[in-house]
């Protein structure tokens, strides 16, 4: 047998093994995966505490008609130290904007199973600003950032819904740019639309300040996002995204991933459903105290990216669109 024939046999055998392995993965994924997400919410997580009246009040649903202009959802896991600065900047901006009586807002702080004083801190703001403007959703166990954002979104009253990171890395006044953008791609909150705050314009500056290894991880992650999921957005991970109420309802009802890669699935679904998406440059600075561990988090997210693509590709995960029945 010639060297060429041996090489051909090795290649054929390798491809057969790989094909068999992929078939096994597909069969397993189809068997263990539910087509639509099971959204977990305990009875105690369906209401918020009014610290002035000292009684619990049921959260509304995103399926109901909106009653404020903007809902700001802030996921927080043990963020007692970083939250005050972020909330002061956020509230200063929103209170100034609310001087125009045509603008109303609410903030929903979602404590994602925090064990520090995150909830107590949030309740102080509820007492200061009243629960009409500031509500605390306390999750009894840690769901992950995506799970926390989802439950906040599903409990919101806004025509437009923004989720913002608790670290305050993005300058909150950049909301005006996102608002202008979303109103340019949709007629109103009853249409689907999403605007993504982006740090892509800061990439070269970030490369200059990062190690070669972290830069390699960043480019590798961006490539995997492009390969498996999102093609139209350069920065999928910035924690500053604005959605219409209609889009929030559809996207978060369909969302499966509850950990770090949830942003990618969110935008992947939006692309699949052909929702209008815009990307807007925002001011951003790195804040100490990130919960991400460089290597393990990238491995976790890389695995999630592959599984997002695979599960939708084989039909293990499916999408549904809700009927738009709201009145303005």
Automatic annotation (TrEMBL):
The keyword Metal-binding does not apply. Residues 71-251 form the Glycosyltransferase 2-like domain. One of its GO terms (biological process) is protein N-linked glycosylation. InterPro entries: DPG_synthase, Glyco_trans_2-like, Nucleotide-diphossugar_trans. GO terms for cellular component: endoplasmic reticulum membrane. Pathway: Protein modification; protein glycosylation. The keyword Transmembrane helix applies. It is a single-pass membrane protein. CDD domains: DPG_synthase (cd04188). Signal peptide: none annotated. It is found in: Endoplasmic reticulum membrane. Keywords: Endoplasmic reticulum, Glycosyltransferase, Membrane, Signal-anchor, Transferase, Transmembrane, Transmembrane helix. GO terms for molecular function: dolichyl-phosphate beta-glucosyltransferase activity. It catalyses: a di-trans,poly-cis-dolichyl phosphate + UDP-alpha-D-glucose = a di-trans,poly-cis-dolichyl beta-D-glucosyl phosphate + UDP. Gene3D superfamilies: Spore Coat Polysaccharide Biosynthesis Protein SpsA, Chain A. Its EC number is 2.4.1.117. The chain crosses the membrane at residues 6-32. Belongs to the glycosyltransferase 2 family. This is Dolichyl-phosphate beta-glucosyltransferase. The lineage of its organism: Eukaryota, Metazoa, Ecdysozoa, Arthropoda, Hexapoda.
């Amino acid at each position: 047998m010639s060297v060429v024939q041996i090489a051909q046999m090795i290649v054929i055998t390798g491809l057969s093994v790989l094909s068999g392995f992929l078939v096994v993965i597909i069969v397993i994924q189809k068997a263990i995966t539910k087509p639509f997400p099971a959204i977990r919410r305990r009875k105690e997580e369906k209401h918020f505490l009014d610290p002035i009246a000292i009684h619990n009040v049921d959260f509304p649903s995103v399926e109901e008609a909106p009653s404020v202009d903007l809902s700001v959802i802030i996921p927080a896991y043990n963020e007692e130290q970083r939250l005050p600065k972020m909330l002061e900047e956020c509230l200063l901006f929103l209170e100034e904007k609310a001087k125009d009586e045509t603008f109303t807002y609410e903030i929903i702080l979602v404590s994602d199973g925090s064990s520090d004083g995150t909830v107590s801190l949030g309740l102080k703001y509820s007492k200061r600003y009243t629960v009409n403007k500031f509500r605390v959703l306390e999750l009894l166990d840690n769901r992950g950032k995506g799970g926390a954002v989802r439950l906040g979104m599903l409990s919101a009253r806004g025509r437009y819904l923004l989720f913002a990171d608790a670290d305050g890395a993005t300058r909150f006044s950049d909301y005006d740019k996102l608002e202008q953008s979303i109103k340019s791609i949709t007629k109103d909150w009853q249409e689907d639309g999403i605007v993504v705050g982006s740090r892509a314009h800061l990439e070269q500056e970030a490369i200059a300040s990062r190690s070669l290894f972290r830069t390699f991880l960043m480019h590798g992650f961006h490539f995997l996002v492009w390969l498996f999921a999102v093609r139209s957005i350069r920065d999928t991970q910035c924690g500053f995204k604005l959605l219409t109420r209609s889009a929030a309802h559809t996207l978060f009802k369909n969302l499966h991933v509850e950990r770090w890669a949830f942003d990618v699935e969110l935008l992947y679904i939006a692309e699949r459903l052909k929702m209008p998406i815009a990307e807007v440059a925002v001011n951003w600075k790195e804040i100490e105290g990130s919960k991400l561990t460089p290597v393990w988090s990238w491995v976790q997210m890389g695995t999630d990216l592959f599984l997002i693509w695979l599960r939708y590709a084989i039909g293990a995960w499916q999408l549904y669109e809700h009927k738009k029945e709201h009145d303005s």
